[in-house]
Amino acid sequence: MRVLVTGMSGVGKSTLLAELGRRGHATVDTDYDGWTRPDGQWDEGRMSRLLRRPDLVVSGTVANQGRFYDRFDHVVLLTAPLATLLERVGKRVGNPYGKKPEHRSEIARYVEEVEPLLRRGATLVLDGRRADLADTVEELLRGSGAGQ
To answer: How large a percentage of the chain has pLDDT more than 70?
Structure first.
């Protein structure tokens, strides 16, 4: 199964992907390693080549991701309230996005404008606030069929 995990900054996409990788699933976090071009969109040629793989979990949220939905078996939206997102981006290390006031305003705008679009394209919506990461992973695997 090819699965896309998407959602707002701070919702837990990278954490979820790291756990899936730890469990042996092939994963790609498109926030790193040049998958996203400077204009904020995926490098379409590179993504097309990547999505030839039959079993893969990809994470990211970019403007042109909808062009690839037909190549994923499932699009999983992780979601959480704005206050949770802002708290998480304020505390995380290794990623400076969300520390500046303009980033935080941007996140708030994206929750209002972009998340509804992501929700419409999702085949599965998961609550990113769960205290137990294992529960979220298990629900993703059950809901997407990736654990079968």
So the answer is: 96
